[in-house]
Specification:
alpha/beta, FAD/NAD(P)-binding domain, 6-stranded mixed sheet, 5-stranded mixed sheet, 21 strands, globular
C-alpha cells in the first residue's frame, strides 16, 4: 500500500480520500480550508446525482446561439467582456468539442459510465460515513411547458437513452403528484427515477472527510504549492507548511489543479465557470423531487436549509467580485416556477467556481510526466455525481486492477491533439 497525498477536499477529493483509506492506503488530505465550506464548488452546487447529465454542454448548432447567450443579461450564460481575451481559446475548443452529433455522442458515452448508478454509489458512501439521511433517492424531474417543448430536445434525450438512462413521462395528475406546487405553465415532465439529491452538500463533504480521518487518514490544513519530482518519480508535495513526503499524489484541487498538473507534464485548459445559488425558506412548499425547468436550466432542490435554486454559467476575470444579479435572476425564475414563493424572501445566496474542461469531461488517470501523480479534476457540472466513480477509477489504478472505465477519454494528453 502507498502513502498518498490527496490535494483538495471538495467532493472529488473527499471521495478519493475515503475510498483510498478504506483500501488500506496511508492518506494525507491537503486543503487550505475546512472541508465542505462555502469556498468550494461542491458546497453550493445543484446537489443533484443525475445519470441524465450525460448530455454535453457543447452540442451541434450551439455556435449560432452562443454569442447571444453570452451577452444576454437575463440568460443562463453570461460573459463579462473583460474575460473574453483570456477565454477565447477555451471557448473555441468548447464549440468544437460537440460540434457534430458524432462528437457529442462520444462525450455522452464517456460520461455515461461515470454517472450510471451515481445516486446508489453516494447512498453507499453516505451509509459508510454515518450520514445516510443526506442522500435521498426519489428521482429527478425535468419540466417543460408541454410535450412539444420536450420533443424539441429529442437529440438530448436520445443521447440519454443510448447511455441507458430510463425516464417516465408525466402529465396531468402524475406531474402534479411529483411537483404539487409547480406553476400551471409547465404541463409536461420527464421523471428520472434513478436520480437522487443531497440535502446538504457541504455537510456531506465534511462527513466524508471526517469518516476518512476515523479510518486513519491525516488532514493537513495548507495550500499545495507544487510537486517535488526526481527522475520522473514523486518525492513529495510542497506546501506552505513544508514538504509532505509521499509516493503518490492525487490532484483534486478543482480550479487550482492546472498549475500542479503542469508540473507533472500536462497542460489542461481549465475555465472557472462561475455558478450561483439562492435559497428560500420553503416551509409549506411541497417539493417531493428536485425539478429542473427547461426554461432557466436551474436545479430546484429541497435541502435542509430550504429550497436551493442553483445554476447560471458566468465567465469573469480571475478575482472579480460576484455579480449578485445572477443570484437574483435565479430567485425571480424560482418565484415564477413556484407561485407560493412570490412573496418569500431569500435566506442566502452563494457563488462558486466550477473547474471545467472544454469537452466537459474530467481529467482522470496518471500524469504524462510522472506515473506517481494521478489526476482527478475538471469535472465541471458533473463533479457531485461523478465523484464516487472517479475515486474508484483511481483506486483501481493504484491496486493494479483493470478499471471499470476505459481510461482513454479522460487522459490529460487528449488536449495536445485538440
Amino acid at each position: 500500500m502507498a502513502r498518498v497525498a490527496v490535494i483538495g477536499a471538495g467532493i472529488v477529493g473527499a471521495c478519493c480520500a475515503f475510498t483510498l483509506v478504506r483500501e488500506g492506503h496511508a492518506v494525507i488530505l491537503i486543503d487550505p480550508a475546512e472541508p465542505g465550506g462555502p469556498h468550494a464548488a461542491s458546497h453550493g452546487n445543484g446537489a443533484w446525482f443525475s445519470p441524465a447529465s450525460v448530455v454535453p454542454m457543447s452540442l451541434p448548432g450551439l455556435w449560432r446561439q452562443l454569442p447571444g447567450m453570452l451577452l444576454s443579461r437575463e440568460g443562463p450564460v453570461r460573459l463579462r467582456p473583460a474575460a473574453l481575451p483570456g477565454l477565447a481559446p477555451w471557448l473555441l475548443r468548447f464549440l468544437r468539442a460537440g460540434a457534430t452529433p458524432k462528437r457529442a455522442r462520444a462525450i455522452a458515452a464517456a460520461l455515461g459510465p461515470l454517472l450510471q448508478g451515481c445516486a446508489d454509489r453516494h447512498a453507499q458512501l453516505a451509509e459508510a460515513a454515518g450520514v445516510p439521511s443526506l442522500v435521498v433517492r426519489r428521482g429527478l424531474l425535468y419540466a417543460y411547458r408541454d410535450r412539444a417543448a420536450f420533443e424539441r430536445e429529442a437529440f438530448a434525450w436520445r443521447l440519454r437513452r443510448e447511455q441507458g438512462v430510463v425516464w417516465h413521462t408525466a402529465e396531468g395528475e402524475r406531474l402534479r403528484a411529483l411537483a404539487p406546487s409547480l406553476a400551471d405553465g409547465l404541463r409536461f415532465g420527464a421523471h428520472v427515477p434513478a436520480g437522487g439529491h443531497c440535502t446538504d452538500p457541504g455537510a456531506y463533504v465534511a462527513a466524508l472527510v471526517a469518516a476518512s480521518e476515523r479510518a486513519g487518514a491525516q488532514r493537513l490544513r495548507g495550500t499545495a504549492l507544487g510537486l517535488r519530482l526526481q527522475d520522473r518519480r514523486l518525492r513529495a508535495v510542497l506546501t506552505a507548511r513544508g514538504e509532505v513526503p509521499c509516493e503518490v499524489a492525487v490532484i483534486a484541487a478543482g480550479i487550482a489543479a492546472g498549475g500542479l498538473a503542469r508540473q507533472a507534464g500536462d497542460r489542461v485548459p481549465l475555465a472557472a465557470e462561475r455558478g450561483y445559488h439562492a435559497v428560500f425558506d420553503a416551509q409549506g412548499l411541497p417539493v417531493p423531487v428536485p425539478v429542473m425547468p427547461a426554461d432557466g436550466r436551474m436545479a430546484n432542490t429541497p435541502t435542509r436549509h430550504g429550497l436551493r435554486v442553483a445554476g447560471q454559467v458566468e465567465f469573469a476575470p480571475a478575482g472579480a467580485a460576484p455579480d449578485w444579479r445572477r443570484a437574483e435572476l435565479l430567485a425571480r425564475q424560482a418565484r415564477r416556477l413556484w407561485p407560493p414563493l412570490r412573496e418569500a424572501p431569500l435566506r442566502s445566496r452563494w457563488m462558486g467556481e466550477r473547474p471545467s474542461t472544454p469537452d466537459g469531461l474530467p481529467v482522470l488517470g496518471r500524469a504524462s510526466g510522472c506515473a506517481d501523480v494521478l489526476h482527478a479534476f475538471g469535472h465541471g457540472h458533473v463533479g457531485m455525481a461523478a465523484a464516487p466513480a472517479s475515486a474508484q477509477f483511481l483506486a483501481d489504478l493504484l491496486a493494479g486492477r483493470a478499471p471499470a472505465l476505459d481510461p482513454e477519454p479522460y487522459r490529460a494528453a487528449r488536449f495536445r491533439l485538440a
